[in-house]
Write a structure and sequence with these properties.
Elements: H1 4-15, H2 18-51, E1 60-65, E2 83-84, H3 85-94, E3 98-107, E4 116-118, E5 121-123, E6 126-130, H4 134-137, E7 140-145, H5 150-155, E8 159-163, H6 164-170, E9 181-184, E10 187-197, H7 204-208, E11 210-214, H8 215-221, E12 227-228, E13 230-235, H9 241-255, E14 266-270, H10 271-314, H11 316-324, H12 329-369, H13 382-408, H14 412-417
Parallel strand pairs: 6-11, 8-10
Antiparallel strand pairs: 1-13, 1-14, 2-12, 3-6, 3-13, 4-5, 4-9, 7-10, 8-11, 9-10
């Protein structure tokens, strides 16, 4: 039940020595601010590092061929081989729990030799032959038109989808793009769509200088036959691609007469494995943030507890009078606990507000200077704020518990004797 007299007493006690109250409150203020800031900085690092993965489906891996390191079935060491279109069908039929398999071929390279011409303008771009599934593995924002489709694959249409970097290099401002032709290594191709990467960090500039073509069209136009340069393979959500890798490698080795123990013949990059490592690292950093912040906060709580012990000592006679007039031990204890709780929560809320201001300033600076390597959008979730509030309430109760027990153990007669 609300008691105005009780709150007047609490405020009077806190105002009795304002400088001491401020110094005591600063410990909690600084501790909770450090806790929130550490978690925000950890989240900023996590956002920056995971941005390097882009929006690519993280339960994926890339797989390509390399030279063999062991002779096998009469074939020499150092032999090179290529994946074939049939390998894709074999993986789909024999390896369960796979969501997408995208065979890919590649031509040219960003900052390489000029390979695309439109009128008098030329440029060097990444050219990929892909299947429609690839956009589900690497989300793209389609700005105009569409992405490649299975009708393009089946009809081997000479169409392409170009990135924003290609548009800037080959087209004038406000010029119509859809329905125009560009020449890729001497082959005229119709532009049916434009895109930008969903994530502009990492290799965003290189990704923007990319052109996608139907896989079958690419193979026919650039004499790749049935060869597949590499594959992007994604597992279903509840199965890790890392657990399926051995089965995929074993199948490919058997189909291409590679020694079963030749681990160098098949190159791969396991995005899921790398993502799990990064996630594990930041889980540890989050724990460290909580741990260090809690230690700093604990020093402030100890300070409040010490001050409350001093306050109880100073008010010994007052407590004795109240006990003599019939105040219950719980009445005395609850007032001490309330004073401790009010001081802790007020100072803690100021600390959270200060941390929020610092986070806002950091984000404003980042927005003005642009992306920073491995750091982006430092922030904390609402769950962290609620956790901080719970910590404050528990800390306030703990800080006042010892002084409150000390106050209730006094005998009224002994308390009245103290001058």
């Amino acid at each position: 039940m609300f008691s105005r007299d009780r709150w007047d007493e609490i405020l009077e006690a806190l105002n009795a020595n304002k400088f001491r109250t401020l110094l005591t409150a600063f410990g909690v203020f600084w501790g909770i601010a450090i806790l929130v800031l550490l978690l925000a900085l950890t989240n900023g690092l996590k956002n920056g590092v995971t941005a390097d993965f882009g929006d690519f489906a993280t339960n994926s891996m890339f797989m390509w061929t390399q030279g063999t390191s062991k002779p096998y079935k009469g074939l020499p060491k150092g032999r090179y081989f290529n994946y074939k279109v049939d390998d894709v069908a074999a993986i789909k039929s024999q390896i369960p729990n796979l969501k997408y398999i995208s065979p890919r071929n590649q031509l040219g390279g960003y900052n390489g030799a000029n390979n695309v011409v439109r009128g008098t303008k030329t440029g060097a771009f990444e050219i990929y032959g892909d299947y429609p599934e690839y956009i589900k593995q690497q989300p793209l924002d389609i700005l105009q038109g569409r992405f490649i489709s299975y009708s393009d694959i089946d009809a081997k249409r000479k169409v392409c989808v170009v990135g924003t970097g290609v548009v800037k290099s080959l087209y004038d401002k406000d010029e119509d793009i859809l329905g125009t032709y560009i020449k890729i290594n001497g082959v005229n191709v119709l532009v049916v769509g434009t895109f930008k990467m969903s994530n502009s960090q990492g290799d965003g500039e290189q990704d923007a200088n990319t052109i996608y073509m139907p896989f079958t069209t690419f193979s026919q136009a650039f004499n790749r036959g049935e060869n597949v340069g590499w594959m992007a393979i994604t597992a279903v959500d509840d199965v890790s691609i890392t657990s399926l890798k051995p089965q995929i490698f074993e199948l490919m080795k058997s189909r291409h007469k590679v020694h079963p123990e030749d681990d160098r013949a098949i190159g791969h990059f396991d995005l899921s494995e790398q993502f799990e490592r990064v996630s594990g690292l930041f889980s540890i950093l989050t724990f460290v943030g909580y741990f260090v912040g809690a230690l700093v906060l604990m020093s402030g709580i100890i300070g409040i507890s010490n001050i409350m012990l001093i306050v109880v000592k100073e008010r010994t006679k007052e407590i004795g009078v109240r006990r003599a007039l019939g105040a219950s031990p719980w009445s005395i204890k609850s007032q001490i606990l309330q004073e401790s709780l009010v001081l802790t929560i007020l100072s803690g809320m100021v600390g959270i507000s200060f941390a929020a201001l610092v986070i806002w300033i950091m984000n404003t600076i980042l927005d003005s200077v642009g992306p920073v390597q491995n750091f982006a959008n430092p922030s904390v979730s609402i769950q962290v704020v609620f956790t901080a509030l719970i910590i404050l309430v528990v800390s306030g109760l703990l800080a006042g518990l010892i002084p409150a027990n000390s106050a209730t153990k006094m005998k009224p007669v002994d308390a009245l004797r103290i001058e």
